[in-house]
Write a structure and sequence with these properties.
By secondary structure, this protein is an alpha+beta fold. The chain contains 5 helices and 22 strands. It folds into 2 domains: 137 residues, YerB-like fold; 119 residues, YerB-like (YerB-like fold), CATH 3.50.90. A 10-stranded mixed beta sheet has the order 7-6-3-5-4-21-15-18-19-20. Strands 10, 11, 12, 13, 14 and 22 form a 6-stranded antiparallel beta sheet that branches. The chain has a two-stranded antiparallel sheet with strand order 1-2.
Length: 343
């Protein structure tokens, strides 16, 4: 009887241990499986990092700490000057016709951009001031038209006129003829930041719709000409399949920066905004009404409309979605009509 009792006790103990082992095994398996799920979620979260983009160029950044202020500078584009300095470093360049059927440029820089020379710096016009105000920051120029100077104090940017502040933020290249010899540079802009105590931005203007670059090139990528006026201001943009950017010609010659490289752009925005004469020679351009727009980049040619929204020019497809831009440099060509564009 005792042996039978011991045998039964052993069987019961064995069953009890087996049950415990089974329970523990199931529990450990569940926890291991759950842990794998949690680690997978964490890995997925790490893989899906937020892409911060530079507010001017759309290029990827490590964080949203932009730590800069926009710098808008009037730049000479005379056909008879030897070069325009610093344009290759600008994030955005506007080109529009002024008096005498010439064009002038407004270049938008990040205040941290390292440049040894920017210019020649030229005079202000109202419509260039309208575009500069979209970014805030500072606006550098040398004098201006009577119309511009009469209202410039009403604009929401720091006005920095070479006439009045002397050579503090500018200098003259004595090897060039006036008025095409006024320049500024990164060290002058740094001095401006220090002396004027300009706050850095957190991109409080609407940023354009930059998207990731696709490996393929669009099927509708084409070369084109912008006919501003005479041959001296006929601009050709030709797409380079190897560089995957548009390169710039003027009067059928390569337009060269001061570093000897040909000017180029990742996006060219053709914005229709008709101009009118406001005196014997000076013009006005309607920067508010909206109108047609065509964008050329490696994605192809796309048509849409531009609108002024919250003091910012934006570009929309026919379905009212924002038009896609390639991260990099953008030129905005302001024309009276799309008839000035030839392919």
């Amino acid at each position: 009887m005792l042996d039978l009792f011991k045998k039964n006790l052993f069987i019961i103990a064995a069953i009890f241990v087996a049950v415990i082992l089974i329970v523990l095994g199931v529990r450990n398996f569940y926890q291991a499986d759950r842990g794998a799920d949690e680690r997978g979620l964490e890995s997925s979260q790490e893989d899906q990092k937020t892409i911060w983009r530079h507010p001017l160029s759309g290029q990827a950044m490590a964080s949203e700490n932009f730590d800069f202020f926009p710098v808008s500078i009037m730049i000479d584009n005379g056909y008879d000057i030897p070069y325009s300095a610093g344009l290759d470093k600008a994030h955005i360049v506007y080109e529009a016709i002024t008096e005498s059927n010439i064009t002038r440029l407004l270049a938008i820089f990040d205040s941290n951009t390292q440049t040894e020379k920017i210019g020649p710096v030229r005079s202000a016009r109202n419509y260039f001031m309208d575009w500069a105000q979209e970014y805030g920051g500072v606006y550098l120029h040398v004098g201006g038209s009577p119309q511009a100077l009469s209202v410039i104090k009403d604009y929401d940017f720091l006005n920095v006129d070479q006439i009045g502040v002397g050579e503090i933020y500018f200098w003259r290249d004595e090897n060039l003829d006036a008025p095409h010899n006024v320049f500024t540079a990164a060290n002058k802009i740094a001095r401006l930041k220090e002396w004027k105590q300009i706050a850095t931005t957190t991109a409080d203007f609407l940023v354009w719709h930059f998207v990731d670059i696709k490996e393929d090139i669009g099927t509708d990528v084409s070369n084109f000409t912008v006919d501003f006026s005479s041959d001296n201001y006929q601009v050709d943009w030709k797409f380079s399949p190897s560089l995957k950017v548009y390169q710039r010609w003027r009067n059928q010659e390569k337009q060269i920066a001061d570093n000897g490289e040909q000017l180029k752009a990742d996006n060219i925005i053709i914005q229709v905004a008709p101009s009118t004469l406001i005196d014997a020679e000076r013009r006005s351009i309607d920067t508010q009404a909206g109108g047609e727009v065509v964008i050329y980049n490696r994605f192809g040619k796309n048509k849409g409309t531009w609108k002024k929204t919250d003091n910012r020019t934006q570009f929309f497809k026919t379905d009212n979605q924002e038009m896609d831009l390639v991260p990099g440099q953008t030129w905005v060509e302001i024309v009276d009509s799309l008839e000035q564009i030839k392919e």
